[in-house]
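Researcher: Let's run the pair from yesterday's discussion. Sequence first, then tokens, for each.
Model: Starting with the first of the pair.
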Amino acid sequence: MGSSTGFAMFQRILDGIRASTGSTVRLTTLAAAAAVALFVTTSFLCAAVFILVLQRYGAVAACLAGAGVFFLLTLAAAGSYYGYKRELQRRAREAAERAARSTAQSMLADPMLLATGLQIVRAVGLKRLLPILAIGGVALGLMASRAGASEDAAAEPAE
């Protein structure tokens, strides 16, 4: 009796997959048909404008007008791509910064790391350890500022 209920449940899962796959295929087909129709419409509009400009101003002007329109479309697409690429880089940089902060916070919350630090302070002594930590902090700050400056210079393309 348990196997028949398992089979019915498996059958329901398969029916759900078939239904979602069927609707996905239908929607994809409709989107492809709309894209083809838009391409054909755009082609006829371009041809009509080309013929209109050809009759009024001549072949050279018609070709230059068509080239100008498609050049503007290319510039718009390139600008959109460039903006999208910068947005992705900004998001990746923010995610890396969040991960770095999370790692630093988790390291400070680690009891083993804190216990080791306390043992080092007890063994070396606080008066001897403070100058070493201060020099290490300054060196770390200098390295971080140099790494940040080189990343900023690499991220900005030369124009």
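Model: Moving on to the second of the pair.
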Amino acid sequence: MAEPRSFLLDLEDAVSRGTPESCLQALWHATDVLITGQYSEEQIWTFGEVIERLAEDIEITARVRLANKLATSNNAPTKIIKNLAFDDSIDVAEPVLRQSGRLDSGTLVANARSKSQQHLLAISKRKSIPDDVTDVLVERGAAEVVTSVAANKGARFSSAGFLHLLKRSEDDHILAEHLGLRKDIPRHIFQQLISKASNEVKRKLERERPEMGTQIQAVVTDVTGAVHARFGPASKNYFAAKRTVAKLHQYGGLNEDQVFEFAHSLKFNETAVALSLLCALPIDVVERALVNNDREVILLLAKAVDFSWTTTMSLLFLGAPNYRITAGDLDGMKREFIRLNVGTSKQVLKVYQSRKEAAVERSL
């Protein structure tokens, strides 16, 4: 065909002397020529200038048709695509938001922050979604949006995004299932999910994710048996430890150095009570973290209260079978501890604490 710029100038000149019907006919012709050809970004921009002028006053049915034509095209002019994505009519915006590869993450974030829940739902069904976009979807989206994006295998989530999903799944078993089935869910989020999930959700996740069966059972099983097997049942020693540590805490003497001293001296009761008070968590949660084979939770709690690696090691050895950890395992735990972020760990700790508060409210 002729040089695109020359073709479009001739087209625009003809349209300027035509009727609304001829303008619409010219719009479809120019759009078809654009999406079936191979052009540079500069040439696509030229097409876009003409198509934008032709589409200036078209009716909604024509905008829907234009959106469907351009949604899957790599030649779609970005300015037009953005205008269609922000159209108030979801019939116009939906195909573009769901399919267009010409929308960058900044545009999707702006759309998700300002448009309707139907717009958010369309974004949630994209083939791939970066985490800065899903952050907005899980925070602002209605239940249908959040469930949709959680079920989307092409969606990526930040640490904050996973925490929002966890919080929103508390009273939503469908969302809990989709979250638990994600292959990229962090282990500590999965553990929290399982610890409060319904029996139905637990059974489904065991069927759908057999590789997580051991972890699911470990979380579901009451920690009491494991603790008692290694450290003996609750006794006068435990209550004495509780009184001693509580008094230290009351007078400001409970700190990281004291926790290290307890753990280094293999004083399990004192260490558990101290960590429980410093983290504002129930004693059973801390005991579970100390003796669980999966050490990520204790790493996370230690990071949340900003303990050093030396103190954290003392906690790990205290809870390890026979107080032994291989050098290889210890190196891996150290890398994981360094990787953890204090701020994110504090957020996870808040989730644990909110569950404690909710349990107290339910008991009143």
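Researcher: Give me one sentence on the second I can quote.
Model: The CA atoms of residues 66 and 157 lie 32 Å apart.
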